[in-house]
Amino acid sequence: MTRALGGLLVALVAGGLAPHAVAESRGEPEPPRVNLVLDVSGSMNERDMGGGESRIAAAQRAFNEVIDAVPEETHLGIRTLGATYPGEDLEVGCRDSEQLYPVESIDRTEAKTAVATLRPTGWTPIGYALRGANEDLGDGPGSRRVVLITDGEDSCGEPDPCLVAHELAASGTDLVVDTLGLTRDDAVREQLSCIAEATGGTYTAVQDADQLAEKVEQLVRRADLPVENPTAVDGAEECRDAPWLGVGVYEDREEFGEHRAYRVPVQAGQELRVAASVTADRQVNRDYGVLLRALDEDGRELTRGTGAGTGRTDVLSTGLRWPVEEPDDDADDSGDSGDAGEDRRTVCLVLSHSFSAPDSVVRTPGLPVELAVDVVSAADESPDAAAFGLARGWAPVLFLAGVGLVAGLLGGVLKRVVTALRGTA
Question: Which positions make up the signal peptide (predicted)?
């Protein structure tokens, strides 16, 4: 059990840590930064981790494995919550979070010595600890990840951990929080899931060894995959004010009842392909939909994509395709080819959703939006790809009619042969 927990932590530390930002001064990748946040509240004394081992002992063993395995180039830090104050004063207990080891190139002996001193003590101020963990990581470029390990939900209420996660997600620092729950309590699962979903992280319950092994394997596979970080973009209310998008992946946020507009230039002979996703990162009402429309410069709708759902979902997606046909060479009788820029079309993308939420749910920041934009030339299409429809002209019609006629004749002959053979039997 302990080894599996350690393996999962190693995978979480390694996953998503490929440096993707470039230091301006030296042109070298910034080191990935990871902050392990450990719950050391009184309930961590419970001995239910297999073999009578306490939760804190299992976590300490797992931390030692992580410290031994962390790559040299990774800056690793450790923060605790509930580790120092055993009293009953709410105000003091809900600020009981401190940096045990700074986020830096790790001294393995020093870090393991610090972990060995931990004894379960106090409260569970998760929201307060998350803010501290974010500050520990600093503001520079590069991968920033928090791994939160706890056996219970926040015991303070203020600041609310889920709201803190939304706050951090909206800060523009690209922080990811993965959460590990040491119990299967529904309230713990709900809170840790909310924290993870708000920041693009993962939640895992870590009491079942088989499930842990499966999760570790999954995370290890993902660790080698290249990750494309979306470009932040701020959509507009009107197409005339909308930002220009090229080929790429973009992220935005959209309030309830809001429309977001973006513009994409498309040349004649190209096809625009767009996928849009809206993430329900908080409690929402049961019926919802997403609508993506493509408009021309006069506001006329060219095409649309829709998606709808009911119940509980994490992401709702839709997409659309719009081809711009080549101009007719014979259209201009004067022989003037005209301005080549006239072949370019501006397509306005308008994204809206019908998510709604109870009055008690926070409205800001808006729901996370992701747009994937691609423009494909007709010359690049494979022969079996349909750029402007399934087929055109009389040829495909005659071909299909001929196939149908031949199939009908062969079917009739076969039926007659079978009937004759049965009659002679």
Answer: 1-23
- Beta-carbon contacts of 235 under 8 Å, excluding residues fewer than 6 positions away, are 242, 243, 252, 254, 260, 261, 262, 351, 369
Q: 70-80: per-residue pLDDT in tens?
A: 777 778 889 99
Reply yes or no on whether the pLDDT at 274 is more than 60. yes
Residue in the structure block whose two tokens are 């220009």: 244
Q: How many CB atoms lie within 10 A of CB 405?
A: 10
pTM: 0.53
Task: Kindly list the domain boundaries of the chain, sorted by start residue.
Answer: 2-223, 231-327+338-379
Q: Which is nearest to 58 in space by CA: 160, 227, 183, 162?
A: 183
- Rounded to whole angstroms, how far apart are CA atoms 68 and 230? 33
Q: State the DSSP code for 236.
A: B
- State whether CATH 3.50.50.60 applies to domain 2-223: no
Quick one: pLDDT band at residue 409, thresholds 50, 70, 90? low
What is the model's pLDDT at position 255?
92
Query: Architecture of domain 231-327+338-379 in CATH?
Result: Sandwich (2.60)
Instruction: Please give the C-alpha separations between residue 4 and each of 11, 74, 205, 213, 223, in angstroms, as whole numbers.
Output: 10, 21, 12, 6, 17
DSSP-derived 3-state class of residue 188:
helix
